[in-house]
Every structure is written in structure tokens, then in C-alpha cells.
Amino acid sequence: MNLLSGRSVYHWLATRLIAIVWCRFYNRANDARIAARFCSRIATLTVGLGVVSSPAVASPLVSYALGAQAFTFIDFSIAFVLGLSLPMLLLVLLVRRLVPNPWWYFTALMLSALGFLYSLNYLTDNQAPAVLSFAISSISLVYLWSFKSTNMLFLDGESEYFAHVKLGEKVLISASILYVLTIWLFPSLDAYIGWLAFAALVLFTGAVQIAMMAKVAPEHVIRLVGQWLLVGLFCGVIFFYLHAQVALEWLITSFVLSFCGALVNSNWELVQRIYQLITEQKAVNEKQLTDEQIFSFTHDPATNLPSYQQAILRFEQLSFQKQLTDFAVVVVKPKNFADVNRVLGHQNSDLLLLQLAYCLKREVADLKYLMNFDFSDINAKLARLPSLHFMLAIDLNKIEHSKEIVVDQLCRKLASAVPSAMSFKSFSLRFELACGVAYTNDHGQTLAEVIAHAGDAVMEAQRNQVLWAEFNAQVALHSDQQLQRMEQLKLDIEQDKVHWQLQPQIDVGNHQIRGFTLAANWRYNGQDLALTEFIEVAEQSGEIYSLMKKMIVQTFQALFELRKLNVYQPIGIPVLSDKLLEPDLAEFIEQQIATYNISAKYLVVQLSEPVMQVACEQAKHLIDQLKTLEVGICIAEFDGSYESLRYIRKLSVDQVNISCQPLCLAEAGSAEKAIVNSLVSLARTMKLAFIGSHVNSRQGLTHYRAMGGQVVEGSALSPAINVGELATWTETWFKRYPSAHTRDSAVDI
């Protein structure tokens, strides 16, 4: 069946036009005839490749010179499709790296559209199957392209919409292949009914897409509805055209409209993405930082030196460019700058810090082996780290001597750069530097880790009172072990794995029990540590208050057990940290007094004298709170200091504990013995109740008794006992010393 026949205008026009150009160039008529035959072959190839387009013959002069022949409507349609598609295809291909897009569907749709129009105009054999095949492929590609384009709207590849899209793609591809095979392999079948079935399937698939998009992205429904209507129009027109009820022009018009609708719909998101990228780039350009802003972001405001982040960025950049990793990082700190902050305040001290930074920077500006931390200033060999630290980096590939010699020379050079006295108004101070060094190949995997290790070396130099120190891995190991101890102690406190004991206080005359002191033991790595040995770990881990609350609870539980045994004697709680001198401690004690219904006079808080000296005001407030509750106050480790005597004069202290540990090793006439003797004499003169603590040997007990001491605490008379063994110990003690039986009388201390 021949739908339409005609002759290729492109072939005729290209042949004549090239011939005329050839003739004018050589100005010979015979050559024109030869050229016409030669160019006929070229024009055939040109038209076949789609290079020549209809606008080339729009000139009336050319038409007149060649013998005018009018274009058909299909020819104009082919030219329109090519003129519209090629620029858009070029744009899509150019931006495919910037904005990924399904350009292959666009290309296939354009070729299918050209095949459809070509079949209508130029095919004579098998025209109907060819036209229907290209029409089917065009419609399928319209929706396949639409599916792929709308996929760019979503990031969730597992959403419900994606599942329907994948199903729709499979249905369209399968139906298209089946229908094309049917019309080519079984020409006797009714192709019209098949077309209706295929068109209904396509329109149903498009309707499902519209319904799904209405749920997830309703703003795109209008375009999809427009595309669906145009495709439906084309499907209907081609059906009536096959029955010779519609003119060819209407068929071409409906096809071109559906093609244009597909271009608009499927390229809409691509254009929106391109516009979005342009807008974002414009916003980025508008937000581009000025040189002053970049400087403020990459430099320390107090010293105008490159910041810590800038130093790391510059280091990584140079290391990557030159493939160098062998550096020595030197961290410098002014040791006594805290005095400046305390006297002048931070704002004024920044001015002195700026002077110091300028002196150090000027001194090392000419050293070629130092890394430059700035992108613009070639003399920026010094960077500012957090706190009061400065940093330099030595490129070990540029030094001529050993790295230890170079580091020592650099540190001495920095120390000599500091003026003898730096002044601010009437304030004057000489800065002293401490330096630490760490090596990138030996002391860390990253620059930040190496800088941290160099900072640890600074603290080591300060402790040892030296100019500089190299990072010691053993120090880091000790820090790691300390962290492990903190974590383990925290866990053991939460799980009640700290071991509690009571140290009896015994009258050496009649062996009566005068009280107890709570002792805590913590087992770590197979060793039993006393409270004095792990109190610092508790402070550092932040569990000191939790530990103290456990001690208070254990004390009241022990007092409750003693009351059941009719033993009414006080128990002392040692306070060995100034972190515990808070009002919350007194409030917690008050809660426990109410909970256990035990008189507060049976509780004695033993304040360590070194703690009172460190935080005298906090100690005073805590003592006042505890005295209000009638809690006993004891000064442990009493050494006759002014602070202790001040509290004693105010009658705020009930007893003192004098450490007799020196007596256990003291010889007759030794200074240690004389000191303990003077403290005992002082307590007796001031009529203070006192107890000799740490009496752990018979020698110490003998010396203490000779000084007039009466009550002792230590293993010389009785070792510490477990809280759970309190009943057994008291029975054994009273059987051993019948005169010590004082169950029914409370002892005043």
C-alpha cells in the first residue's frame, strides 16, 4: 500500500547548486555538465546523511536559476525536525558531563521521527509497515525518554515511583517489539486493531505516570498531561489516516506536535538543572571572599600569624606537591605568659603577645629550611596554635647537619630573639620559652597528631626546666595508661567494685575502741591501691564526687551495723581533694542522716590539711555547714599550719590526726621524731583531742606512747577490717580484751 509518493527535492537541489558553483568557478559549460554528474553522487550521500536541509533553497533567485520546484509539506516538516533537534542534541551532549541526561533517547527519537517522515514521502515498497514501525518506536521513545527524565527528580531509587517506572519501561519495550514483529512477519493480521491495542496500552501507561507524579511531584503534572494529550491525538489521527478519513497534512501536524511536546517535556528538567547550576554559580561568585576576608579567616587575629588550620592546609599542600613527608615540628610556648593574663587581662596581654610573635617571626624569616605557612607572605615561617603555642616546621631534606643540632640551634635562636624585658605601660616582663619537637616519620600518622605530640614535649621541657625536649613515646604510653585507669575506675565505682575497710582507733591503755576511719582500696592490674594512691585518678576522671558519695553511704551502713552490735563509736571519712569542698557534700550527708536515722555526732569528716591550704575559703564554708549539722570535724595530716590553728582557735575543729609514719623509721634524737613530738605537745597544750595515725610498727607505737599519745590508728595494734567482718571482729576483740568492752557507752571525742 502506497501512502504517499514523491521525489527528493534535496537530491535535485544539491546536485544543481553544486554544479552551478563549479561552473562559475571554472566558467566552462562543459565542465558544468561533468560537474553535475559528479556532484550528483555527492548530493546523494549528503542527503542520505542529513547534511543538506531545506532552508538552503529558500532563496527565490536560486529557485529561478535552477527552475523552481516547490517543497512538499513533508519536506518542510523534515527540515523543521532537523532544525529543532540538532541544536538541542548538541546542547544535551555538551552538558552531559555537567548534568547527566538520557541523550541516547533523544537521539533515537530524532532518528525515529526522521524515519517516519522519510517513509511517508519516499518509500514505495513496504511503506505501511515501515510507517507503523517508526510511529510505534517514536511513541515508545517519547515515554521512555519521559520516564528517564523524570527520574532525575528523585534520589531514592527504591521509591514506589521507581518501581512503576521500571514496570512501564518493560511493558512499552515488550509491546513495541511484539507489534513490530507482528506487522512484519504476519502481514495478513489486522494492523489497525493492533494499533488500537498498542495505542491504548501507551495511553494507559502515560495515565499511570501522571497519577504517580500527582502524588510525588504534582508541579509536573501539567506538562505530563499535555504530552499525554498530544500522543493521544497522534494515535487517533494515524488510525483515521489508515482508514483514509484524515488528510496527510493532519497526520504530519499531529506527529510534529507530539514530537515537540516530547522535546519540551523531557528537556524541561534538563533546562531547570542547567538554570539551577548557573544560579548557584552566580551565587558563589557573589559570595566570593575578598582578600581581607580570606586573611581574617586564615590568620590569628591577635598575632596576624597563620592559624592552626591554615598551617595544616599549607603543610598538606606542600607535602602533596613535593612528595615530602620528612619534617620536624617545633612547638614553642612562653612559660610565664599566665602572669601577664592575670595582671593585664586578655585584651592588654594580646598586645604583648603580638610583640612576642613579631620578634619570633622576624628572627626565623630568613631560614630556608623552615616551611612557609602562608600563600602570599614568603616570610610566614611561624604559625599560631590554640592557646599560647606557636609552631614551626623544619624540612629535614634541606638541612646540612643532624636534625638534633638544627633543632637545638633553632630553639636557641628563638630564645635569643625574645627581648630582655617586654613592657606595656608600666608593666614589664621577660618571657621564657619552652620548646617541644616531634618528627613526622616517627611520632604520628597525621600532622595534627605530630603537633599534639610536640605540645606534649613542651610540657616535658617545662617539667625538666630545659629549653627544648623531644617527644618521648613513654610519656604518651603513660597518658594512655592513665586514661585506661580512669575508665576502669569509673566502671568499678559504678559496679561497686571498690573494696571498703574500717581502720580501728584504739586506746593503748585499756584497748578500748575509740572510733574507726573508713578506708577504700581499689584493685587494678593485680595491685591493691589505697585511697591516697588513686584519688588523683578519681579527680581526673570526674568520678571524685561519685566516689565520695559511695564512701558516705558505706560509712552510714557501717554505723548502722555498729548500732545493731551496741557499739556506738564514730567513723571518720577522709576528704583528700579540694574538688569535694562543695555545699552538695553537706546536703548529701544531711540526706543520709535522715535516711539511716543516725545521729550526726557519730560521723567525723577528716579534712586533709593540704586540701585546706589549697582551698581555705571553700573549706571554711563546708566546715560551717557541717557544724550546723553537728558533724564532727577532724584535721588530718596535722602539721601545725596557720590555717589549721585558725580553725582550732575558732573552736571549729573537734580533733586532729597526727601522722606517726616518720616515727616508724625514726632514730632516737632524729628531726622527724622531734617534729612529731612538737605536734603532740601543741595538741596537748591546746587541749585538743588527737589521734596518732599510721602507727604501723611497734617502734612507732613505743615512740608515740613516750610522747604522751593515747589513741592510735594503725596495724601496730589492729589491722584494717572488712566492713562485712565487723561483727566477727568486735566479738573477737572483746573476748581478747575484756576491759575494752564499752558497747553501751558512747565515747566523746
Automatic annotation (TrEMBL):
InterPro entries in UniProt: Cyclic-di-GMP_PDE-like (IPR050706), EAL_dom (IPR001633), EAL_sf (IPR035919), GGDEF_dom (IPR000160), Nucleotide_cyclase (IPR029787), Rev_trsase/Diguanyl_cyclase (IPR043128)
Family annotation (PROSITE patterns): EAL, GGDEF
Coiled coil: none
Domain of life: Bacteria
Keywords: Membrane, Transmembrane, Transmembrane helix
GO molecular function: cyclic-guanylate-specific phosphodiesterase activity
EAL domain sequence ranges: 482-734
Keyword Membrane part of the UniProt annotation: yes
Transmembrane segments: 6-26, 38-58, 70-95, 102-122, 128-146, 167-186, 192-212, 224-244
Record carries keyword Hydrolase: no
Domain called GGDEF: residue spans: 325-471
Protein name: EAL domain-containing protein
Organism: Thalassotalea euphylliae
